[in-house]
């Protein structure tokens, strides 16, 4: 369970980074 939440946190950080990159491009 702990590893699952850790994975979700990592995925969330990647998603936020991608979102910021898209905002910066436009």
Number of domains: 1
Report the strand count.
Answer: 0
Helical percentage: over 70%
* Major sheet description: none
Low-confidence stretches: none
Strand content: under 5%
Describe this structure in words.
It is a single chain. 92% of the residues lie in helices and 0% in strands. It starts with a helix and ends with a helix. The protein is built from one helix and no strands. It has one domain. The model has no long low-confidence stretch (mean pLDDT 90). It is an all-alpha fold. The longest helix is centred in the middle third of the chain and has 24 residues, at 2-25.
Question: Which key phrases capture this entry?
Answer:
single chain, 26 residues, mainly alpha
Write the layout of secondary structure elements.
Blueprint: H1 2-25
What's the gist of this structure?
The protein has 26 residues and is mainly alpha-helical. The chain has one helix at residues 2-25. The longest helix has 24 residues, at 2-25.
